[in-house]
Amino acid sequence: MIDSEIRNRKELVELVNEIGLLPFFSGRIEGFSLEENISYDAWYQGRWSGKIHWDAWDWKGQVLRNKELVYGKFFEKKAGFISLKLWPDFCNYRRDGYDFDARFDDGLASYKDKGLVDYITGAGATLTRDIKDNLNYKKDGNKGFETVITRLQMETYVVPVNYEYSKRKNGDEYGWGNCRYDVAENYWGDKLCRSAYKRSSEESLNRIITHIKKVLPRMDEDELGALLKG
Asked: Across the chain, how many H-helices and E-strands are there?
């Protein structure tokens, strides 16, 4: 479907900007993911001397720090990338006319969702471990952190903004990285997140599909619609 073999972050950014969005892992639509369109050398190769060798895993933090692409769990609760061009319509479609407070006031968001959004709004961009500590997501405390944070990403209210790694005494990084989350408007700005609010959610969906189909005309529209619905 995608005639490309991504070898580095620059090529990833160029491809996502052309297509509009791209899931990280293979999924509903065959051939439509970073995993299925990446060079062997850049995909996960295991560990050497205790250090993870997975270039593609590092790209997500780099594109976020450089504000090149939006990244998060947007596609059927799985991660992927979205271009800044399509992000306003993606937000508008997923939010369906609701800012978070309005969604909560209408009974469409849980108290756990509100607690997490309110905490990050007040604290600013915050590491996962600190969110869990401050909101008591621990043994014998609150449950379901991954469910809540994934739902808020799917709805585009909260997004990853960086991945930070623990370091050994010699300075080497290790582990999978601790995600730092922020409210989408705080990191990407009100204009980028809300500039499509003047359109209906259905119009935004059609704009996204039209853009992708121009680049990938053989894409099954029903499957694409299901992926975008989440």
From this structure: 11, 8
Rounded distance, CA 118 to CA 183, Å?
9
- CA separation for the pair 80, 90 (Å, rounded): 13
Cα 173 from chain centroid (whole Å): 23
Residue 118 to residue 30: CA distance in whole angstroms: 38
The pair of three-digit structure tokens given for residue 209, joined into one six-digit string:
């599909």
Q: Alpha helix (H) ranges present in 68-178? A: 87-95, 100-105, 111-123, 128-134, 145-154
Residue 56, phi then psi, degrees to nearest 5: -60, -35
Please give the single-letter amino acid code of residue 213: K
The predicted-structure confidence for 168-226, as pLDDT tens digits, reads as follows: 666 666 666 799 999 999 999 999 999 999 999 999 999 999 999 999 999 999 999 99
Beta partners for residue 158, in sequence order: 183
Q: What is the number of other CB atoms lying within 10 angstroms of the CB of residue 146?
A: 12
- Measured CA to CA, the distance from residue 92 to residue 57 in angstroms comes to 28
